[in-house]
Amino acid sequence: MRRFKRISLWRAGAPLALMCAGLLFATSATNARGTDLRPSRNTTLAGLVEEQSRRSASLVKQHAALTHDIEALQAQQGSIDPKLAKQFEDLSEQVGTRPVSGPGLTVTLRDAPPEVVKDNPDVDENWLVIHQQDIQAVVNALWAGGAEAMTIQNQRVISTTGVKCVGNSVVLHGVPYLPPYKISAIGDRRKLQKALDDSQYIQNLQDYVVKFQLGYDVKNESTLQLPAYEGTLDLQTATVPGFPHTPSASPSVTGR
């Protein structure tokens, strides 16, 4: 009698279990919409950064092409006064919207090697990676040494350029980059090198270079080809909801 009851309960419960399983499969298929619920692509931060960098680089190229077309159309409207044309050319070099070339230095910054991280599990991880302050220190020292033009990760540095850390990547002009970080500057190489050597912040960084093998390399360059800045020159300001907003203005050119 007991055996008969158990068989009856199983027969009654089996269809219910199968129906629930079917509902789960149908729900998963609907949510996935034909895609993998656990996609293997772009699951690492490095992959996401590289994908965003490629997308941003493509948009920058499109912007540059459109800007070139606009300038060509403006030139067709009539001849420009030679004095104004010369002034425009000079200002373009100062602002950074024209490519330049010349001798200079390239500074490369790298995080500590993986084996150093493994061999020092008790060390603060912040000591083993390059931060935005390190990049800014190099940039400031090179400007102080008389740099005429500069790039970070082959992006032209202008007066509104900002370097910002996001996780273990650095964002420059809206594009994320992973180390190594390369800063190139055109100018008198001896003065640039002396400015780097005299920087107190970089001297402190050298202690971590020796102790934790952070990468800090300086290379003399006989000729550097620095690209023009191809982004927008408009300044964007934050606004508070409910308060009047003042339109942003283009930056004026001043002496460095």
TrEMBL record:
Keywords: Signal. Residues 1-32 form the signal peptide. The keyword Signal applies. Pfam families: DUF881. InterPro entries: DUF881. Belongs to the UPF0749 family. This is DUF881 domain-containing protein. It comes from Kribbella karoonensis.
